[in-house]
Specification:
The complex is a heterodimer of chains A (112) and B (114).
Chain A lengths: L4 E3 L2 E4 L5 E6 L6 E8 L3 E9 L2 E4 L8 E7 L2 E6 L8 E8 L6 E2 L3 E5 L1
Parallel strand pairs in A: 2-11
Antiparallel strand pairs in A: 1-3, 3-8, 4-5, 4-9, 5-6, 7-8, 9-10, 9-11
Chain B lengths: L2 E3 L4 E5 L4 E3 L2 E3 L6 E7 L6 E7 L7 E2 L2 E6 L4 E6 L8 E8 L6 E3 L3 E6 L1
Parallel strand pairs in B: 2-12
Antiparallel strand pairs in B: 1-4, 3-9, 5-6, 5-10, 7-8, 8-9, 10-11, 10-12
The chains are: A mainly beta (112), B mainly beta (114).
């Protein structure tokens, strides 16, 4: 069974550009989480969905960040416009109800 | 609010030996879940082991086992017969049954000496 799939694995962009990160959760999982990892702040939960509905987006740093989950097998995290301080590794994770979260391989974002 | 503390920024162990990574947490809840995740240089977060607070028996997964001391709010990870592939950052995490958010420790970097 395939795990959580994220694309791209690496993204390099210039300040001001729009960035879209993609995630395909494990089939059958009803929760999806977006995290950001930096050396300074560690792992931060940005937003999570239950059955495609955003439940808690209090971790989204500012309005430049948005996330969608149009269906059970796809989610996007968009940053517009991007800034150098957005450089980080972004993880998507999914889980089935109360069970543990399974993480994707992450997307390393570099904003120049 | 719940907190998770990993007091060892870095640990090293000789290959084939046993190492224990520490984790303490603070909570007023009686029921919760605890996890250890491993993050190797590939940066993939991999679940190592999980423990439900209502279970008195310590969880075990092959060479990995935990020492769960609920009263002391301690959740240490023991790795037996350490292998080079065990080298990674290890994160302890807490989850409330009423909230799907994981509370993470700062991580412990484990170095395996050949």
């Amino acid at each position: 069974d395939a795990g959580v799939i994220q694309s791209p694995r690496h993204e390099v962009t210039e300040m001001g550009q729009e960035v879209t990160l993609r995630c395909k959760p494990i089939s059958g999982h009803d929760y999806l989480f977006w995290y950001r990892q930096t050396m300074m702040r560690g792992l931060e939960l940005l937003i999570y969905f239950n059955n495609n509905v955003p439940i808690d987006d209090s971790g989204m740093p500012e309005d430049r960040f948005s996330a969608k989950m149009p269906n059970a097998s796809f989610s996007t995290l968009k940053i517009q416009p991007s800034e150098p301080r957005d450089s980080a590794v972004y993880f998507c994770a999914s889980s089935l109800a109360y069970n543990e979260q399974f993480f994707g391989p992450g997307t390393r974002l570099t904003v120049l | 609010a719940q907190t998770v503390t990993q007091s060892q920024p870095e640990m090293s162990v000789q290959e084939a030996e046993t190492v224990t990574l520490s984790c303490t947490y603070d909570t007023s809840e009686s029921d919760y879940y605890l996890f250890w995740y491993k993050q190797p240089p590939s940066r993939q977060m991999i679940l190592v082991i999980r423990q439900e607070a209502y279970k008195q028996q310590n969880a075990t997964e092959n060479r990995f086992s935990v020492n769960f001391q609920k009263a002391a709010k301690s959740f240490s990870l023991k790795i037996s017969d350490s292998q080079l592939g065990d080298a990674a950052m290890y994160f302890c995490a807490y989850r409330s049954p009423s909230n799907y958010q994981l509370i993470w420790g700062a991580g412990t970097k484990l170095i395996i000496k050949p």
